[in-house]
Amino acid sequence: MATATRRTLPTLKVKQLHPPRLPSPGKLVTNKTNTGRNLDPIEKRLLNIRLHLLRTTTRRTQTPSEPSLVFDSFLYLGGLKSLSNRVRLTRLKITHILSIVFIPPAKNLIPSNIKHLFLKADDNIAFNIRQYFEQACEFIEEARQSKGCVLVHCVCGVSRSTTLCCAYLMKYHSMSVEQALVQLRSRRHIIQPNNGFLRQLVLYDEQLQKEHYNHDKTTLNVMIEQFENI
């Protein structure tokens, strides 16, 4: 597990990154809805993500490349279409493929020299995709550590695969949900995790924040104890 301190990140350094313009504080979702009902912090955060990060304001007809390079030079995101061109997979130096679909891809679509992980999941707001976060993150990180490239795909490269890529960026690259979504959308404009998956990502983000806080607190206590023993 990464030990990098979270929440002290500089502005994302992404080539050709054009993040959506976030509204001024006065335009952000307030603590109450139009009906006067109080919003809990998670609901407020989800509304802001949907309204200001994932809302499509302009019509985009350009089809993204399959697969799309979404982070650094090793993480690709796409749909089943990404598996149809073996020559391209070889040219992209893909060494790992993570399939997050309901039915596993046909065996003839996965080259024998590529490490493959299949995770059964339905693109449904009630589906517990969080159960796969740790396994998926470790698989993606394994590809990076081995100097390989990994393709994470679902059917269309919009919801399920995006969710797992988000979880990875949050865990191993100290990004918040919002930062991860901006990163991915700058490279693949059609990403759109369903509302249930977004909620699970926000809860996972809170879990990671707590873990990093506890780790930092423990490290500080150890340093204080060592200083006192000098």
Automatic annotation (TrEMBL):
GO terms for biological process: negative regulation of MAPK cascade. Residues 16-35 are annotated as: Disordered. GO terms for cellular component: cytoplasm. Residues 66-210 form the Tyrosine-protein phosphatase domain. Residues 137-188 form the Tyrosine specific protein phosphatases domain. It holds the Pfam family DSPc. InterPro entries: Dual-sp_phosphatase_cat-dom, Prot-tyrosine_phosphatase-like, Tyr_Pase_AS, Tyr_Pase_dom, TYR_PHOSPHATASE_DUAL_dom. It comes from the Eukaryota. One of its GO terms (molecular function) is protein tyrosine/threonine phosphatase activity. Its EC number is 3.1.3.48. PROSITE patterns: TYR_PHOSPHATASE_1, TYR_PHOSPHATASE_2, TYR_PHOSPHATASE_DUAL. SMART domains: DSPc. Keywords: Hydrolase, Protein phosphatase. PANTHER family: DUAL SPECIFICITY PROTEIN PHOSPHATASE (PTHR10159), DUAL SPECIFICITY PROTEIN PHOSPHATASE 1 (PTHR10159:SF511). Belongs to the protein-tyrosine phosphatase family. Non-receptor class dual specificity subfamily. This is protein-tyrosine-phosphatase. It comes from Rotaria sordida.
